[in-house]
Q: What sequence folds into this?
């Protein structure tokens, strides 16, 4: 039995920490442990078990949180590579890889000390000390806290502040005076999302009333009503609101979520009354996670049309690479509308049929619902979604589904590259050139490159497919140097034509009209034609605000942010100047800050000004 373990903690230090293992505790490499760190408790990942005694005195592990590893050997190796390659603390890397923040609750507790009891006693005997630097109101709050803690062993911070209305700064001062002691009581918790369900127990009450039409009832739960017992005459004692609830439950199969019953026009207390009378029972059940596809318009299945020759060739080469069970990198270069998504889904279906797993990365959360809808249409409940838009509890729930093998197809943004899938066969990075794959905070990894390394480090050999209509320079260079296999999709699906693109030289527009134009005559004509046909037009301009530059015509200087030295943007609607780099805000100037001239001009066009112009041209 090892005596010590090295633990990676999510702190900005490039090192691991050694802790002693108490007798009877069996932490595992790759599992989480709860350990003391300075004056707090932290959860960390065990990276090594050993018997080498450190040269300094060690603290003991408080609790082993996992019986089996949450990061297997391949993910541990990947995390160490990220820490080394991107110069990031390994503990912070592991924290990014594990979306399990919901399973650890940080909590602080306070208890009164002997000095605090003495201060409380002296205050009761002779009043507040005259030499105290606190105001009378603050002293009153301090003694209220001491009085509250004197009657209890330990109190959580949120309860203490709620009961005494004490500020955090005042609590910190009492800790420094040693009147109270602060203790970190953070611990693991069950992060399962629960929903309260009302279950009909006494059905006679419902039978005594005419049943509701099932088509007008609320949707029933998946399970039926529980066995019931009743007492004679119960139905006769029900008032109108109680009868409505009972009838709704009976017509819905005897089981409904409480939230669904809130839609009825009855007081909230009615449900509690029925529960106390034993007619219904309120139980907590695990809440199902549903992929949000109901609001999306149904799309044609990607397998309902004939694959092109290029698609079949790409699908065959990817399938051969996956079947070889060796690492391989492929760049799928296909123009917009060439059917890259259909190739992705077909490859993932082959992988799933072979009993293996796959990961699909998309650059932005906004794309996830559409991708999830396509995957759900093809793979059903085998799909798991991972991205930062989910709550901590939802992410933890999805992570555990993947780990248990309930979902072998994973879709999400850059963090989904760390999904704990078993027998990984295929990693797909859609729109691989997108800058959203770069993490902006520590660890500053690039998900595309991490995906390549994840596939390379997979135990059974995995294939990474990088897809794009405009590949990044480095990926295309790697393909041309035969580091990746290059797959081309040169034509659109069913030989559909590409949209026509016309570039208008605005310099010629100025020469011909003699006026500076934002919207060319050609564009105005096309917009007018579309509107005449009752069609829609989308005009894009990648500049926020009304005017991007404020210029003094007298001295030629511009209004710049005092923090960033970049031009501040004029927002006419909100009547402010804002720096889009740091968020600094100033008033709109009526004269130059440098020379005092009144000749201040707002130069350039932003989206607000464009909207104003369009309203004037097409009211």
A:
């Amino acid at each position: 039995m090892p005596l010590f373990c090295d633990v990676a903690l999510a702190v900005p230090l490039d090192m691991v920490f050694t802790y002693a293992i108490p007798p009877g505790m069996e932490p595992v490499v790759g599992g989480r442990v709860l350990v003391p760190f300075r004056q707090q408790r932290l959860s960390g990942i065990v990276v090594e078990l050993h018997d080498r005694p450190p040269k300094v005195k060690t603290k003991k592990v408080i609790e082993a949180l996992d019986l089996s590893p949450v990061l297997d050997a391949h993910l541990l190796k990947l995390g160490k590579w990220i820490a080394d390659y991107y110069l990031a603390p390994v503990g912070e890397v592991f924290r990014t890889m594990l979306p399990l923040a919901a399973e650890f609750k940080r909590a602080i507790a306070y208890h009164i000390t002997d000095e605090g009891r003495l201060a409380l006693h002296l205050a009761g005997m002779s009043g507040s000390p005259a030499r105290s630097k606190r105001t009378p109101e603050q002293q009153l709050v301090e003694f209220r806290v001491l009085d509250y803690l004197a009657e209890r062993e330990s109190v959580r911070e949120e309860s203490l502040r709620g009961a005494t209305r004490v500020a955090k700064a005042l609590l910190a001062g009492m800790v420094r005076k040693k009147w109270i002691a602060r203790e970190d009581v953070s611990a693991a918790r069950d992060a399962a999302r629960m929903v309260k369900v009302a279950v009909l127990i006494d059905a006679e009450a419902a039978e005594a009333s005419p049943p509701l039409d099932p088509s007008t009832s609320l949707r029933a739960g998946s399970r039926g009503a529980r066995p019931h017992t009743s007492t004679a005459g119960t139905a006769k004692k029900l008032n109108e609101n109680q009868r409505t609830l009972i009838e709704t439950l009976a017509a819905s199969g005897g089981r409904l979520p409480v939230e669904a019953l809130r839609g009825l026009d009855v007081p909230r207390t009615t449900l509690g009354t029925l529960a106390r009378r034993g007619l219904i029972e309120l139980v907590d059940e695990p809440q199902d996670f549903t992929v949000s596809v109901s609001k999306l318009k149904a799309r044609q299945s990607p397998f309902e049309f004939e694959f092109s020759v290029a698609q079949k060739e790409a699908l065959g080469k990817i399938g051969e690479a996956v079947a070889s069970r060796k690492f391989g990198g492929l760049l799928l270069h296909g123009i917009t509308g060439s059917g890259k998504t259909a190739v992705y889904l077909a490859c993932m279906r082959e992988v799933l049929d072979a009993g293996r797993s796959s990961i699909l990365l998309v650059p932005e959360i906004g794309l996830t619902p559409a991708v999830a809808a396509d995957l759900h249409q093809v793979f059903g409940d085998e799909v798991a979604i991972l991205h930062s838009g989910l709550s901590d509890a939802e992410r933890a729930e999805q992570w555990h589904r993947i780990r248990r093998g309930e979902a072998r197809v994973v879709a999400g943004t850059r963090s989904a590259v760390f999904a704990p899938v078993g027998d990984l066969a295929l990693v797909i990075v859609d729109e691989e050139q997108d800058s959203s794959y770069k993490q902006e905070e520590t660890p500053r990894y690039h998900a595309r490159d991490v995906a390549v390394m994840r596939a390379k480090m997979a135990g059974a050999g995995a294939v990474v497919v990088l897809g794009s209509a405009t590949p990044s320079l480095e990926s295309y260079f790697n393909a041309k140097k035969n580091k990746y296999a290059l797959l081309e999709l040169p034509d659109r699906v069913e030989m559909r034509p590409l949209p026509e693109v016309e570039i208008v030289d605005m310099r010629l527009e100025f020469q011909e009209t003699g006026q500076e134009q934002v919207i060319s005559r050609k564009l105005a004509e096309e917009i007018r034609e579309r509107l005449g046909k009752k069609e829609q037009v989308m005009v894009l301009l990648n500049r926020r605000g009304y005017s991007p530059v404020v210029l003094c015509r007298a001295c030629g200087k511009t209004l710049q942010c005092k923090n960033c030295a970049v031009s501040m943007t004029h927002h006419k609607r909100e009547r402010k100047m804002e720096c889009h780099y740091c968020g600094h805000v100033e008033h709109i100037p009526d004269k130059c800050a440098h020379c005092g001239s009144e000749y201040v001009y707002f130069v350039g066009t932003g989206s607000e000004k464009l909207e104003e112009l369009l309203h004037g041209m097409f009211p």
In short: The first helix runs from residue 73 to 85.
